[in-house]
Amino acid sequence: MSEIVIRLSILALIGIISWLFVWAGRRFVEAQRRRALATAPLSALLLQDKALPASDVAPSLVHILAFSTPDCRQCHQLQAPALQRVLEAREEAIKIVEVDATTEHNLVQAYHVLTVPSTVVLDAVGNASAINYGFATTQLLLSQIDKILAKGDTSCPAVPSHSR
After folding, report:
1. Do 67 and 120 touch, CB atoms closer than 8 A?
2. Whole-angstrom distance, CA of residue 159 vs CA of residue 46
3. Residue pLDDT tens, the chain, 164 long
4. Which pLDDT belongs to residue 43?
5. Do the Cβ atoms of 157 and 56 come closer than 8 Å?
């Protein structure tokens, strides 16, 4: 009987420790998301980045920064088609900007990109409205875009125009 109690106690302890790790991980990701959402508008970031000339700026209501790497299978097989469907559904209202997470360190740090694929949905002013760490479905991205469009903010952003 005491052996069963010891085993159950160990199992409960392992469960509690596992739950604490998951809880701490979720808190960390949420803290990163809050910091990224508080980032300065993208136009301010671009002024600091000499690699992106001012001539690459185009007006649009919503921009999506799609962070990936050349060897990210999920980025190319899942996220890219989802972004293409989003573009087809809201083509006049959005621009999709592909960002190579291996070379654009300033943007990766500014938006606290933890993994690829990651997407950052920016409003017309360049403020981060939503951040998705990992694969973002077409439906999720469309709902995030629609929230921005519903606000009716049509200011002119400063975002690179080399979109898909």
Report:
1. yes
2. 8
3. 799 999 999 999 999 999 999 999 989 988 888 888 887 777 655 544 444 444 444 556 899 999 999 999 999 999 999 999 999 999 888 999 999 999 999 899 999 998 999 999 999 888 999 999 999 999 999 999 999 998 874 444 433 433 44
4. 61
5. no
**What is the Cα–Cα distance from 52 to 118, expressed in whole angstroms?**
20
Q: CA dihedral in degrees (26, 135, 50, 55; nearest 10)?
A: -140
Q: Give me 32's structure tokens.
A: 């990163």
